[in-house]
Amino acid sequence: MLLRTSNVDFVFISECIFLPWPTLGNYICFAGGLGIKGAVNRVEGDFSCTFEVERAIPFLKQAYGDSMHKVLHVGPDTCSVVSTLLREEETEAWGVEPYDIEDADHNCKSLVRKGLVRVADIKFPLPYRAKSFSLVLVSDALEYLSPKYLNKTLPELARVSADGLIIFTGYPQHHKIKAVDKFKVGRSAKLRSAAWWFRYFVQLSLEENEAAVKKFDQAAAKGSYNPSCQIFHLKSYQ
């Protein structure tokens, strides 16, 4: 099946999967086969905070303990994060891919079929009940939202978490974050300082989880882990 898209000559659709979630559409298709002129990868550039999530998992487990048993990750390459989490003992994991997974591998397609990974526009309400997950991890996603949608999405992420919301985001000065292609999201990443984020959290009545921060920092120091992204540990709404 061939589709013509803007900025790309042709996309060869090799496989489509029926999705039972009405809010997300009926089918998702994966590209393959033909070489695509000017093809865009899901993530390009020098650095990814989604990769940082995977590096941080052992230290998150030490900081959050039993709260790591039911985790939602939101961000690009969520299939990779979910797969890593599922390898942990007594951990269930789900993922929301905010953009697309047209270049998904076999493992990612399998996670979609099982309903463990969804493709959803995070500018709109998430298809989950309040406190559906013990922890929500988000990476490489909030940077691409305008203030209008950030005001809606961040409270949504907190709403579906029971024990905490953990945000991984790039530093405005020190790193060039991998850029999700503008063709998919419509805007460039806006990297913000820690001071900006903390002021913003206060506006949304989101409190820092100081106990989790202390445990995480202690575990990271003991394991010689130096995060390459800013990591914010927030309490869920009560």
UniProtKB/TrEMBL annotation:
TM regions (residue ranges): none
One Gene Ontology term of the molecular function aspect: methyltransferase activity
UniProt superkingdom: Eukaryota
Any one GO BP annotation for this protein: pectin metabolic process
Name of the featured protein: OLC1v1017065C1
Organism (species): Oldenlandia corymbosa var. corymbosa
